[in-house]
Amino acid sequence: MTLKTNAFTQAIRQGDKQIGLWVSLSSNYAAEVVAPAGYDWVLLDMEHSPNDLNSVMAQLQVFAASNSTAIVRPDWNDTVKVKRLLDIGAPGLLFPMVQSVAEAQAAVAATRYPPRGIRGVSGSTRANKFGRTQDYFQRVEQETTILVQIETRAALAQAVEIGSVDGVSGVFFGPADIAADLGLLGKPTDSAVWDAIWDAARKLIDLGIPVGTLVQDAKFAAQLLRDGFTFVACGTDTALLAKASDALLAEVRTAIV
């Protein structure tokens, strides 16, 4: 038995555009609703959602049967959490709030076995089909997606250095936190936010480093992908449910007046 090729890792290396969806409902049942849609990638969020290892694993099991690659965002750049997420089979990780080259290096090290890193070794995990995947140790490093999230002005100033760290697959910009750091809390689409993001993103794109983000607007997502971004999440499951619920109620109320 051999390790499955990570389609998302390969795609962003080749510059193939990848459309994603944020998955925050923390439910394998909700994941089953999303999985057949066919997004290139989804993000299972542990930072701002009530996910734990068991709920993440259940969702990974759902998406493993689909064509969507499930990337997991741990709640912090934590070595122990990273080890456990990789052992349950996360094909990629998005590290939040990476502020420096040293933090990016620490993130990569947490995903690598010695001597290249500090990931603890277990011979029988869900990730290696409980010891059946014969080439797991040889190939997991090249298949696992390692994304680092830039969310502050300080990180934007070091974007090239952070993105150039050996082992980093791509750089993800967090518009909401960047907006807050710029004094524009709650205004992630403000032009000043995107001027700052694009200043850093263009430098990374010119170096062939994949860049991505999350936005809540389909047209804006498409524009970013056309203009050079490689992986963009175009919405969240929670926002979709909220908007559809509100719209349905409003439609019926209007119709009975």
Protein architecture, described:
- By secondary structure, the chain is of the alpha/beta class.
- It has one domain (7-255): Phosphoenolpyruvate-binding domains (TIM Barrel, Alpha-Beta Barrel), CATH 3.20.20.
- Helices cover 46% and strands 16% of the residues.
- It has helices at 7-14, 28-34, 53-64, 79-87, 101-111, 136-143, 153-157, 159-163, 175-181, 191-206, 218-227, 237-255; strands at residues 18-23, 41-45, 69-73, 92-95, 145-150, 170-173, 211-214, 231-236.
- An 8-stranded parallel β-sheet has the order 3-2-1-8-7-6-5-4.
- The radius of gyration is 18 Å and the shape is globular.
- The model has no long low-confidence stretch (mean pLDDT 98).
What are its keywords?
alpha/beta, globular, 46% helix, TIM Barrel, 12 helices, 8 strands, 257 residues
CATH topology group: TIM Barrel
From the spread of the alpha carbons, the general shape counts as globular
Tell me the distance between the termini: 63 Å
From the coordinates shown, what is the CATH architecture? Alpha-Beta Barrel
How many domains make up the coordinates? Answer: 1
Ranges where pLDDT stays below 50 over 5 or more residues in a row are none
* CATH class label: Alpha Beta
Tell how many strands the DSSP assignment holds.
8
Helix- and strand-based class?
alpha/beta
Looking at this structure, what is the CATH superfamily?
A: Phosphoenolpyruvate-binding domains
Main sheet record? 8 strands, parallel
Summed up, the helix count is: 12
- DSSP strand content: 15-25%
Mean pLDDT across residues: 98
Percent in helix = 40-55%
In which order are the strands of the major sheet placed?
A: 3-2-1-8-7-6-5-4
Gyration radius, in Å: 18 Å
Which H/E pattern describes the elements? Answer: HEHEHEHEHHEHHEHHEHEH
